[in-house]
Amino acid sequence: MRRLVDAIALGWLGVTRRPGRAVMSATGIALGIATLALVTGIPASGQADLDRRLTALGTDVLVAQASSATDDPPKLPVDAAAMVRRIGPVKDASAVANLGARVLRTDLADPNQTVGIVALAATPDLVEVVRGTVASGTFLAPAGLPTVVLGSSAAEWLGITHVDPTRPVRVLVGSTWLTVVGVLAPTPLAPELDQAALVDWSTAQASLGLDGHPTVVYLRAEESQVEAVSAVLPATLEPELAGMISVSRPSDALAAKRATQGTFSALFLGLAAVALVVGGIGVANTMIVSVMERRREIGMRQALGATRLDIRLQFVTEAIALSTLGGAAGLLLGCLGTAGFAALQGWPPVIPVVAMAGGFVGAMAIGALAGLYPAMLAARLSPTEALRT
């Protein structure tokens, strides 16, 4: 035990003797550990946010729409939403209809540059069904007024991110001017609504040529019965063309992000491992140079009775000390980076303790391996040869 304590003291003394060199040597290890901390902490924080969103939004929303290999898919029934509501486990349903109209801020704008905004007819219950929220203003009123609500992206593209009732703003939908009464926050369960201008259904029928047939039906069902509802939904909407009705579950798309995050995490973990190995090589090079510079010190210790094991322990512990310093600095940088990035994204910061501890232990192990060869070189020196230089 005494031998180990002496080796640790001498190893630490060797590190503090040349602080500049120690910092440069530990930088490679620090970068590797910081990378490891970031590539485990950031995806973990993102997944925690995704789990939180899925819990808050639920997994009970389904989307049904007609699909076809041609450009003319079959139309859904006029009373599609009412038909869906009659399915036992369905809690609520709402429909939208694509109006095929351009949405412009002014009639002087180029009608060919509409930035992908889609005009949709909608009813007041849509926002509740898709669990959307109004960021500014209000949603469509039941009174059937000539109003429009903008999705988050559509509002940004049109430069209307805030609604002031005292200063109404109008947009041109097709050939009809409509007053903007609200702007939606991003809608995770219906991201297509972010690029949409939602027009009151009655207004769309009266002024924009809507024939009453919806193009998409959104519904909420009891979570335990979602699969069963999904199975009967196509036949409910179109008994003769059930194969042309596609049903999707938006929460599945959100959950699929986990697999993507896992793939990128594995890639970056590989990069972190490479950085650690490079850092270990840097520590090994530093220790070899240190052995060559301290030959006289090694000879003096041997002349005073130090064994080859004592010499080996001295240089191995010095290499471990360098790696430990680098690992601690890397962990600090990684944790701060993870917390900062999570704060910018609005995520709950998550620090994977097991991964961090494993990385720190790995850094110490790499330091020990990096110090083996220099320690063996130092132990092979004979006292007379070492003192002669």
Automatic annotation (TrEMBL):
Q: Which domain of life is it from?
A: Bacteria
Q: Where in the numbering of this chain does the ABC3 transporter permease C-terminal domain appear?
A: 271-383
GO CC annotations, alphabetized: plasma membrane
Q: How does it sit in the membrane?
A: Multi-pass membrane protein
Q: Is Glycoprotein found in the keyword set?
A: no
Q: Which UniProt keywords apply?
A: Cell membrane, Membrane, Transmembrane, Transmembrane helix
Q: Molecular function terms in GO for this entry?
A: transmembrane transporter activity
| Transmembrane regions listed in the UniProt entry | 21-44, 267-292, 313-344, 350-373
Q: Where does this one sit in the cell?
A: Cell membrane
Q: Where is the MacB-like periplasmic core domain?
A: 23-232
Q: What is its main location?
A: membrane
Q: Short name of one Pfam family for this protein?
A: MacB_PCD
Q: Which InterPro entries match?
A: ABC3_permease_C (IPR003838), MacB_PCD (IPR025857), Macrolide_Exporter_MacB (IPR050250)
Similarity comment: Belongs to the ABC-4 integral membrane protein family.
* PANTHER family reported for this sequence: ABC TRANSPORTER PERMEASE YTRF, MEMBRANE COMPONENT OF TRANSPORTER-RELATED
| Name used for this protein in its record | ABC transporter permease
Naturally occurring in which organism (per UniProt): Aeromicrobium endophyticum
